[in-house]
Fold each of these.
Amino acid sequence: MDAIQVENLTKKFDGFTAVDDLTFSVPSGELFGLLGPNGAGKTTTINMLATLLKPTSGRARVAGYDLAKDRDNVRKSIGIVFQDPALDVKLTGRENLDFHAMMYNIDRETRRRRIAEVLELVELTDKAKILVEKYSGGMKRRLEIARGLIHRPTVMFLDEPTLGLDAQTRRHIWDYIRKLNKDTGVSIILTTHYMEEADYLCSRIAIMDAGKFAALDKPARLKDVLGGDVVSLELDAPSEPLMAQVQKLPWVKRVKQHGLILSLTMEKGERRIPELITLAQKNKVTVVCVNLHKPSLEDVFLHFTGKTIREQDQDQNERHRPARGPHGGRR
Amino acid sequence: MIINTTAVYVLWLREMKRFIRAKSRIIGALAMPLFFLAFLGLGFNRMGVPGIGRDLKYIHFLVPGIIGMSLLFTSTFAGLSVLWDREFGFLKEIMVTPVSRVSIVIGRIAGGTTTALIQGLMLLLIALIAGFKIPSLASFLLALLFMLLITTTFIGLGLIFASVMKDMQGFGLIMNFVMFPMFFLSGAMYPLQNLPGVIRALSYIDPLTFGIDGLRGALIGVSAFSLPVDILVMAAFSVVMVVLGAWFFERSESL
């Protein structure tokens, strides 16, 4: 059974199309990523699949239940971690979890057991009695992930789960997400605008832009399209023999020369730099400066949409974004 | 329409926990009515206000009015608190749970009613300590009924505003153009006979007029309308407001 089946899903806000005729499916147990800039329609897609927004047109099945006809069963089957924190900060961590579990009609004994379980999983057991307003951003995120798991959903939505967190906490949460997917077999749909996040976590990624999928594939295949890292070598003098030798190297996919700068496309550029420098020395050329450029979301995005994410974000800001209040979306 | 009692209980319990923890909020919410009572009461007590009857002290006339005012503000805010939940994202968390919207509305009304009633009763208690007298247990219970009806009416109104407004921008407008006029038109501070006819007509469409009149009838035995009329009008207002509030809330998108 597919965790998600989407057919021609569309959402329009006052003439502005946020999600434009999406069709895709996510097999059960997959960790699926929606990658794109702000305003690409990722959150709108998630909100529709989580029954919070009514689609303008199109159909979807979530955990096998029809989104339009069987909302309650969809709601019972999903867990969601929203982009913006959705905790009651005047309650303690445990109360937030307990209240959530009660909303799903879970009996007291099961509640006690599962809360202990999820608190353990996100390492918040000793912080459970503290008011959430005293939590750090990372702790809040972890608590929300724990909350999303209490009622044992079969499909989990994570909307920008690491937005605004420091690098260490981000790593931590990535590991939880992976572990979760592996241990419980829950299908996870994750949105992000961090390339490395999608890359590290997802088995498949959809690149989303202006409400549509620009590409959908495994992360490695998406990056393959770009051909890999670009290593730029600045030389002290032009060297024809070096150029010729470099072109013959089997792992170099593309060579470009721009004045004294040699740009080479390859996989795992950082491991090839020493070899390249040695090769230059053999040809009596000194490398003055080395620059390694890893393919980023920027590049992949540029490749598929013909625009950089920055340009895209500017466009989105000029456009009317009705789903957000005047106070801005993110806190 | 399925009412999920656990969900109602959870939402009620949440309000209780938040209420108990927000001590400064309780003090703040009590301070304004107490200041009104103290300064207006003391200021006008000597000179007397025409139309309230010779035997009645103005401060005693004022007590039910100020309790009504406190209920008006705390209840409307309780209904409007949906806006805060929307602002802080918690509303989404409630809306994705498999619980009927009706249960969510009832839970919120139950929580708001309890906190508003507690504050109203605290005011009454302070008034009793200061020398206000309630004739009998029956009149106390009757007053409690009116307090309940006022509360549900204005939570319903708050829910309507919260569902229509979407964010807190219009909050000041509602304070100045809805809540304060309702308070002044209700006869909380002076008998309605003192108002010119046109304005008096306006106060007859203000639910709080009947609520405070009923409270006055119950607590000090003075009222402009008969108590059954007050009860009927308030019951009608509260049913209409709660149903409208639930209807608007149900229809509003949760984001």
Amino acid sequence: MAMLQINLRRFRSARALALVGFLVFAPCLGYGQDVNSCLDCHSAQPGRLEVTPEKFSQDIHAQKGLTCVSCHGGDATSYDPAQAMSRKAGWKGKIDRKQVPQLCGSCHSNPTFMKQYNPSLRTDQLDQYHTSMHGKRLAAGDTKVAVCTDCHSVHDLRPPSDPRSTVNPVNVAKTCSRCHSDASYMKQYGIPTDQFEHYSTSVHHDAMVVRGDLSAPTCTTCHGNHGAVPPGVDKVQNVCANCHTFQAQMYQQSTHSKAFEKASLPGCVVCHSNHGIHMPSDEMLGTGPTGVCMRCHTPGDRCDRARVAIQGNLTQLDGAIKDADAALRLAESAGMEVSEARLSQDQARDALTKARVTIHSFQTALVNQDIQAGMKIAAANQKAGKDAMVERNHRRIGLGICLIAIAMMLVGLWLYIKKLES
Amino acid sequence: MFAAIIRWLDERLKLEGLIAPLRHKTVPTHRLSYWYFFGGITLFLFIIQVLTGILLLLYYRPGANEAFESVQYIMTRVQFGWLIRSIHSWSANLMIFTAFVHMFSVVFLKAYRKPRELTWITGVILLFLVMGFGFSGYLLPWNTLAFFATKVGTEIAGQVPFIGKPIMIFLRGGEEVTGATLTRFFGFHVAVLPGIVTVLIAIHLFLVQRQGMSIPPKLEARWNAHPSEKREMRLFPNFLLRELMAWYVAMGALGALAALFPWTLGVKADPFISAPAGIKPEWYFLFMFQTLKLIPSKVWIIDGEVLGVLGCSLAGLLWLLLPFFESDKAPRTKVWITGLTVFALVYVIGMTVYGYVAN
Amino acid sequence: MCADQLPRTDTSRRRAIEIFLGGGILASLASFLYPVLRYFVPPAVVDLGGDEVVAAKSVEMKPNSGKIFRFGSRPGLLIMNSDGTYRALSATCTHLGCTVQYRPDLREIWCACHNGTYDLNGRNISGPPPRPLDVFDVHVRGDEIVVNRKREA
């Protein structure tokens, strides 16, 4: 009996220890696999060491089940820094910039691995990166250039389709400008830092950011994203040609194409600029501040004369369309129905657009063809507007006649009544 | 030659027998007798509606696919189509206006009193039906404004407790406003309503002819006391010739409006776009619409719109039964009723103006 | 009162009434009836409205070709396939509204403005266009190719 009692006493203290241990470690049971000592500590760290669970929960990798350990190594179950961040546990610490592409590529270049998450994701980013200016310079030892995390962000990395992602089309230009618009950062490279400033005034930026057209070009559309390099002088028109095919075709067959190639001039960019591409206007054919032709051509020469002719034709059609619009507006405000002519105006405007594309052939005769087609339509519409006004006048005359007849009748009735009652 | 035709007809139809009683009919003449013309003017405008409506029927196609285009066709291709359509639209509005004037003149001249209660009742029902004409006809060009006005209007009708939803579905030909609504409204507009209104007009005119024109109470009392002061004119031909003059003036006004301010076509209705801002019904519904807008969304536990609809319906019912509230036994009610009817007129005009200005 | 005065004013009065009344009736009725009679005459263009249109005659279409036609307010594109069947779609590009064209070499529909392409079912397959083109119903009536909008449910 006494033996039992002694045994029990020993067991009692063991039980007490077990109980205390249980109480201490019970919270871990509740989390199960979600124990993340890294986040628990680092959410309270200052400055660049801070990573909060809220931030990390936005990260696509976290949502797919990857954790801090997946990239940084270490032991996420331990709250003891010596254990959690021990080399023995595989801790890599802050990933050196030069190692970043390799680290990301260890998964993202592995098609078999990536297939289990998103089979349609490309896996050639790292290869592309090696061909890029950033990749080449990084290999040469320059750590100032962009690596994966600079553009894609880290710890709150979102897929490009997410509008909040730093690499969503709408945000790409801003992301690139973080370095490329920083004059002091870029000083040693000797390249301009005004690209974003110019791009922000461009028609492409307007289409993307203001009108929300995600198909509009941004930095990566022309320069590539992972394999980013500026297109060479002779490659520029190929890039523009991807969307502006007609203009490119005409330009290719024109006299300018060969001339610019020989002079090593960058094709489309010569007249339209590369980053600050504004909505072109007929003024570009003129002699004002936006005029481009006379930058090279001599006043009075054959080309100058052609320029004047083309600009004249365009202005003529533009004016004809505006005149027709005015005539139709007048008719409408007088209450006349001119909706058909209004719609036909769209066709005239189409012809003008076509003519402006044909400019790139630099042949007056071709441009004139489109102009004349448009002139015919605009003239017909203006006539419709004028006819409507003539019809309106006819109606008023008709009304006048009718009112005279009615007045006559009223007088007659009045006289008759008077006679009856006299 | 005129006389020869009359004689030819008289030999066969015994016209004299029909016309003779008319020759004896008189219309009292006094300071306010000009108001007597408004009933006839309303009738004239209705006849114009029927005639121009029949002409429009020759080219109009009901159906969401073709309605707008057919009205556009009438306005642009058919010779004088613009005229017929604009007259139809203007005459509709003028008719509702003159109907209101006629009604209020009857109210203020106290012509609804015994023995003319039935005339009043048929008249008020006619007014409701004529506003139904306006509501159904407005949708027929199938443009955006009309589409949404119909949507809102039938939505309000659906607010009546219990029976509202079935009424709304009946009106719309379904849960939503669709091509089926258009077809249904077309049927109401060209067959159902014309039939009922024609019968009611016939009854209304018959009653007026049978009972003669009413005289304002004070004047009536005076003339009863001093029969020599009575002034009358013969209905046929004197009053009718004057009425004809009024009709000619109305015709001239219609022509001028149609030529100088042609009715617009609008944009074809697209059920998938959101309602344009500031949708409001035609002016003759505006006072009710504006009232509804002013009622808070919840009054005690009752939904504001339901209260508004019920309130308007109740007001309409009381208005219909107006003659029965006035009797010679209680002279004080007469003052009350005069006051209320003045308030009603001021309210209708005020709310209509407010409805316009508020947007 | 002079005996000869009365009849004179009377007759001139009566003549005035006759002129005004008679003339007034005739003139006013004529001015009412004239537009109505003209209205009865059907116009030359029996336009069927914006819902059905004759896009082309069968003889003018060749296999693997396209034709732009006017459909109500907007352009439409009629395509004759190599096997002789027809296809009709809206020709307004869903990107920025340019008029598209049929490319016999690609057997696709192409927009010259920004290089957008659609397949023969109108689906946008490459380039900027965000939405497909509307497809219309086509059938052959005699020697005419008739295009209808798809009937509302």
Amino acid sequence: MDTTPSLIQIKGIRDGLLITLGGATWPELALAFVKNVDERSSFFKGARVALDVGVNELRVAELSALRDQLSERGITLWAVLSESPITETTAQNLGLATRLSKPHPIDVREAALELPEDAAKWVKGPLRSGGRVIFEGNVVVMGDVNPGAEIVAGGSVIVWGRLRGVVHAGAQGDEKAVVCALELAPTQLRIAGEIAVSPKKQGKSQPEVACLKDGQLVAEPWQEMTGR
Amino acid sequence: MTAKVVTIASGKGGVGKTTSVANIAVALASRGQKVTCIDGDIGLRNLDVILGLENRIVYDLVDVIEGRCRLRQAMIRDKRLPELYLIPAAQTRDKTSVSPSDMVRLCDELGQEVDWIIIDSPAGIERGFKNAIAAANRVVVMTNPEVSAVRDADRVIGLLDAEEKGPAALVINRLDPVMVKRGDMLSVEDVLDLLAVELIGIIPEDENVIVASNRGQPLALDGKSKAGLAFQNIARRLMGEQVPFMDLESQNLFQRLLGRK
């Protein structure tokens, strides 16, 4: 009995193929998909594939296994769409996209409007080289942000650790955004439209806050901020 | 019996992965362990040269995976240590000849026969690296005390965490205590400060390493060299022993008294 058509839908999109999997448990779906690929290998060869897995909750082992199986067949898995936040996180961990195209600027602004002002994304550190966090609200990192890592936030960024990567706070133009860290030594720091690099520091570091003052990016020790 | 599968990776090339694989494998084998090392650098094989087994290659990794020979036929036995084997890489193929699931299957089969499988990862973070870590249950990340190497090690450690192969263990290679003292080289503390992972080895700069590699006589067999001792210590730590780190500074003073470099 051939049940595959009901489990797998294939659609051509601008960025390659969009494959929608649903109507069965994950092992069955993955198996059916790989079988489908093997049966039509000439069609799939060299394809760039985005997978819509619906509500399936996928862990790293499951998703990386499928990615490897596909890559063995000459297929690049570049995106995984899901309604499950667990699957989205897994996909992001594996460096896969979770949206089909970059969000339209207007969408971002709308999303920012929908977010409550104090919304923040919690990131468990360390954020290592190559790691990237993009969020419309505020971002809090528990741990170091290493050189080569990047944070882009619509609001402020707080790093409970050493900040040595690249940070852009107020990425949508919020000039009131601040960046604070236990040790503020970013490769590059941006707030709204301003950009700065860290001066070489001597001696013991202390917690600092960077903000925009009269259009200038300044960093101050944390104690002086308490009066604000 | 299932073998421990250890992959040595670094991101950046030239930090000493292959030399370390050879020496750690030799050190484990000299402690009575049954060891097979696998050269994962298909197309750019080197491990056979460093182990001095180049002229004995008949079959290679790709031959096993593509079924042209049995696993046993591709395992080259070392002349010095009867419990040390090498599965060489194919020189005339590329990384896509092997897949991550091939490596898992191979290590499952091989793991029935040996205590340790040591895999030499190629530089980079692409297919060859993914192949090399697929079967690993422990990954050792190598770095030099240089900013660029440490940056790449950080990236690799992050990727290993994402693939749930972490936490990685760290080996710092080619440390020169004199340069560190002068402030011209990152210290062990500087490196650990950034990478924040478990340190399992510090290998001092030692020109004998190059001599030994060229001769195909791994240094870990030579009990007198500092670097050889450092590799023996890594092997012991991998086996679960608590081994204190060598005091490189005082050895250096001793060397200076002897009038050597």
